[in-house]
Amino acid sequence: MALKPTIYKAQVELADSDHSRYQSLNLTLARHPSETLERMAARLLAYCLNAGRGLEFTRGLSTAEEPDLWQHADNGEIAHWIEVGQPEEPRLRKACGRARRVSVYAFGKSSDTWWQLNGAAIAALPRCTVWQLDWPQMMAVAALLERTMALTVSIVGGVIYLDNGGASASIEPVLLADSAEG
């Protein structure tokens, strides 16, 4: 019998002063049995950084043809394809052909090596933006997550501040490449 995902409920008070977005979000995240808490935290951060109408979590790890998050335009087109982790260049090339915009939030102990090996090819892709999330900072963010959580997320000057009422953490994504148009 296959293991089922673990469901996390997050009530997020988002204050993104960088993009003038202030929202109360009620999010449900399904954590795949093989997914680390840090990866789920990266998905949550990606959601907060890109919050907007039509943004949704996909089936993720269980479906190879979908990103971790995506945003559809009113006409059904994929407006934004969002990957977390260290995706391969052919996957991102295909995503660039399917979506108007592609974002990657790379993280992990080996993300520097991943970028050294793949950076030139990925940076050459059209409509693609790549961010790196620092591994020690990601571990601190993941430590804040609980099955049912209330988080305050503030984004100021490119830094994300998170607080769960008992502990806090911050993370500053580093821009590695940006070939996004317009």
Name of the CATH class: Alpha Beta
How large a portion of the residues is in β-strands, by DSSP E? 35-45%
Tell me the structural class. Answer: alpha/beta
- Contiguous low-pLDDT stretches (5 residues minimum) are none
DSSP helical segment count: 4
- Taking the alpha carbons of the first and last residues, their distance comes to 48 Å
Question: How many discrete domains?
Answer: 1
Q: Describe the main β-sheet briefly.
A: 6 strands, mixed
Order of helices and strands: EEHEEEHEHEHEEEE
**Any idea what the radius of gyration is?**
16 Å
The count of β-strands is 11
Strand order of the largest sheet: 3-4-5-6-7-11
- Indicate the mean pLDDT: 94
CATH topology: Restriction endonuclease-like alpha-beta roll fold
Which terms summarize this structure?
about 180 residues, Restriction endonuclease-like alpha-beta roll fold, six-stranded mixed sheet, 4 helices
Secondary structure topology:
Elements (H helix, E strand, L loop, with lengths): L5 E11 L4 E11 L5 H13 L5 E3 L11 E4 L5 E7 L4 H10 L3 E5 L4 H13 L4 E5 L2 H8 L5 E9 L2 E5 L4 E4 L2 E5 L4
Parallel strand pairs: 1-8, 5-6, 6-7
Antiparallel strand pairs: 1-2, 3-4, 4-5, 7-11, 8-9, 9-10
Helix pairs in contact: 1-4
Q: How would you describe what is shown here?
A:
β6, α3 and β7 form a beta-alpha-beta unit. The chain has one domain (6-178): Roll (Restriction endonuclease-like alpha-beta roll fold). It has helices at 37-49, 89-98, 111-123, 135-142, and strands spanning 6-16, 21-31, 55-57, 69-72, 78-84, 102-106, 128-132, 148-156, 159-163, 168-171, 174-178. The chain is built from four helices and eleven strands; from the N terminus they run ββαβββαβαβαββββ. By secondary structure, it is of the alpha/beta class. α1 packs across α4 (135-142). The strands form two sheets. A six-stranded mixed sheet has the order 3-4-5-6-7-11. A five-stranded mixed sheet has the order 2-1-8-9-10. 29% of the residues are buried.
